Amino acid sequence: MYGWCGRILRVDLTRGRITTEALDPGIARDWIGGRGFGIHYLRREVPPACDPLGPENKVVLATGPLTGTAAPTGARYVATTRSPLTGAITCSNSGGFFPAELKKSGWDAVIVEGSAPAPVYLWIDGERAELRPAGHFWGKTTHETDDLLRAETHAEAKTAVIGPAGERRVRFAALMNDRDRAAGRAGVGAVFGAKHLKGIAVRGEGEVALADPAAFKAANAAFRGRFKEKTRDNPPPLRLHGTAITVVGTQSHGVFPTRNFREGQFEGWEAIYGETLTRKYLVRPKACFSCPIACGRVTRIPEGPYRGEGEGPEYETVYALGSNCGVDDLAALTKANYLCNELGLDTISMGGAIACAMELFERGLLTEAETGMALRWGDGAALVELTRRTGLREGFGDLLAEGSLRLAARCGAPELAMVAKGLDFAGYDPRGEQGMGLAYATSPIGGSHMRGDPAYFELLGVPVAADPHSWEDKPPLIAKWQDVFCVIDAAGLCVFFSVRYLVEPDLMIRPVGITELLNGATGAGYTPEEVERIGERIFNAERLYILAAGFGRKDDTLPPRILKEPMPSGPAKGLVCRLEEMLGPYYRVRGWSAEGVPTREKLASLGLL
Amino acid sequence: MRVSVQAFANLKAFAPGGDGEVSLPEGATVRDLLARLAIPPGVEAVVLVNGRRAGGEQRLSAGDRLVLFPPMEGG
What we know:
Number of strands of chain A: 17
Distance between the termini of chain A: 27 Å
CATH topology of the largest domain in chain A: Aldehyde Ferredoxin Oxidoreductase,  A, domain 1
Number of strands of chain B: 5
Largest sheet of chain B: 5 strands, mixed
Number of helices of chain A: 26
Radius of gyration of chain A: 22 Å
Oligomer: heterodimer
Strand order of the largest sheet of chain A: 2-1-6-3-4-5
Helix content of chain B: under 10%
Strand content of chain A: 5-15%
Structural class of chain B: mainly beta
CATH class of chain B: Alpha Beta
Strand order of the largest sheet of chain B: 2-1-5-3-4
Helix content of chain A: 40-55%
Structural class of chain A: alpha+beta
Number of domains of chain A: 3
CATH topology of chain B: Ubiquitin-like (UB roll)
């Protein structure tokens, strides 16, 4: 096969057995890879009613046909599993260098199943793979583990590992690759921990074989040329200042979540946004494999109590650990970010849990006797300490480790968790960004912005702009963007490049450039229409899985704060999210029933019957 | 009339100095402001007036607060 390696590595941790499977060419064509392979195998092999932390659950780590190629941003993989935070799926996505290395080792995907009797790690050295004891790594941070794994395998190996948080099954523990990149959302790290799998080290020296190298090269050169031309007069803001520059877009529109989504503008935004990060702490930008943008941030806090080095913070972290907790101390939130990376925690859900706890404390629903410290908005020192305690499940951190929804429910106020399907929102308040509300409510993983991100057209002017306050026009747009994001995540590409340079510049984005690259790599001869249909297939398959896990229309919702409490101030003042008005039309656009269930006709048209 | 302008990332180079205010004739539009700031046609800008996205033909009023940033690849 071309583009695809044609081989899948299956790792049975219970029996300590590793087997190789051929990738069925029909499955490859129908699902592309990455997120598509993830849901395909999950539906086939993991009962939707399984205990996410039990041996029945599996993790599918899948690259796409463009991962490890010279395609711009061909750096990514997807970890799909049943989430211990939400009970829905997660299909958490990460870049860096590990995914490309996995592909170059000759594997399209690794399926991890069962549970090891004692801690192990997986060493993939090209075609050979083995499980090795990891008892001596247990308890180590992600950075320590990366060092030790490479010392024990190969200095140039790339790793994906869990930290103490994953070992302790913190429900939003991340799987960290290349030290500081995260398959972060909804608890992949906890599933690894429950399986006693400390991590994976991989070494691959092969090249991805291309079906039509000349055509691939020409397409690649054209897209990179387009990027170069555009950025000559328009240097990428993400390269200049990292994703934290996005604060400008959310703050100015009044949708920058502040103090657990009570407000949409943060008075301390200038202290924590991207340009301030650049000025105070940036060491250098850092690119993932084959990426021309380089949005990653290598940073250093040179002095003070939070002195240290690491990567980040990203926009989502600046929101979650910053404005959403009322924290304008950039050093403290950067330190908390470093701790999240080292302990292996999702920064978004960490911030969501702490913000929720701060509001519960303010309302007297949590007391100092329970928390061990005062929880006050804006307290950077508390933020850092709570992050540490959560990663280690120490004291009150043991409750935070259960996530915001379980914490709020325990205090009798589940409505104070800012979540959809139990997953904490990203950094966009849906009251001033109507499409985002629909995206959160209908995302298969819950409150994520990365399952069809309307912030691009509602806030950031990419590829063209739409009104963030209108809702009538959003249902078809959200469905379309969700499907195209499935394609991006299946191909092994990064959204950041794809939505500007690999689609037609229209609100109803079409994956024309992605199709061209896929064809050059795989020789599949896809049409853009077929690729769009695959995106729709993936999204519907994910929907079927979460429906079987017990989710339905009742769960396609948002907290009362977002639906009923008007935004108190700023450009979105007076607005609530008009989710109910959008949901019916959205279901109709999708070919789903009034209960949010795909019709037989829709499933038949997608080959899902 | 005077309006205030904040600009970010590469557009900072075109921002007004001092207190960030610009004087414009009555009836001036967003396009007039961009010309005053000497932002070249090839340089892309998202323009917000009082927190709402504005096109080039939108007329400005005294005291308007403008935010200019380049289209962004995401967050």
